[in-house]
Specification:
By secondary structure, this protein is α/β, with parallel strands linked by helices. The protein has eight helices and eleven strands.
Length: about 230
């Protein structure tokens, strides 16, 4: 049984998330409304997934308590949920051991998809058995600390859970076009070509943040995308 910690100061939102999570089987969920409550629970249990609101309360000292909790690795996998539009804050949240980020308000189906994928990632991080050895494109490797993350030229690339799934598919099919329909299977239900193109753009930017010359992911008009060897 996997353990989930939900930390959300808005009682209505907290109850809504708990109701959604109840649809997932073989789990146990604890909830807290503030940093103190979260710390009390963290002191007695090891969680597989922590779902954290970035901003807990309005007081200056507690406003970004979710970020403080994430920096202390409260679970094998951290999923942020926030209504903030501050891009700098969101970037920081992404950097702090975060598996993915959900913006409020969210679609229920998107939330559930990310929760389930986060739990799958938590299972992989605790497994002693490594993922099957696959031949990856030159320069790309799995992180030795978390097999669900990728390194590019030795540097960890910051990707969301959805983007990790897309990169995994492209890498597994290195040198071969992966059609739109197959890649879209990595997206939350109801998303299509425009959402896929947006994720591909974000993936390219994330890799270029580590390597300005990155150009390995190419578009095949009308077909899909391909990871090509560097010229």
């Amino acid at each position: 049984m996997q353990l989930i910690l939900v930390v959300e100061d808005d009682s209505a939102m907290r109850e809504h998330m708990l109701k959604l999570i109840s649809e997932v089987t073989d789990i146990q969920v604890d909830a807290a409304a503030d940093e103190a409550g979260a710390r009390e629970l963290m002191a007695s249990k090891t969680y597989d997934l922590a779902i954290l609101d970035i901003e807990l309360g309005q007081a200056t000292l507690s406003r970004f308590a979710g970020l403080k909790l994430a920096a202390e690795k409260p679970a094998k996998v951290v999923l942020f949920v926030s209504g903030t539009s501050d891009t700098t804050l969101r970037s920081l949240a992404s950097y702090l051991y975060t598996y993915d980020f959900i913006s409020k308000p969210f679609e229920d189906v998107d939330f559930l998809v990310k929760v389930k994928r986060s739990l799958e990632a938590a299972q992989l991080t605790q497994s002693a058995a490594p993922l099957p050895k696959l031949e990856l494109p030159q320069g790309l490797e799995r992180s030795p600390n978390n097999q669900m993350k990728f390194l590019w030229q030795g540097k960890e690339v910051q990707l969301s859970v959805t983007e990790l799934g897309i990169v995994d598919q492209l890498a597994r099919s290195f040198g071969t076009v992966v059609v739109h329909a197959k890649l879209e299977s990595s997206l939350p239900t109801g998303r299509g070509a425009n959402a896929l193109a947006s994720h591909i753009r974000n993936i390219r930017l994330a890799f270029r943040d580590k390597d300005p010359d990155f150009s390995e992911i190419s578009t095949e008009p009308g077909r899909g995308y391909i990871w090509k060897p560097r010229a």
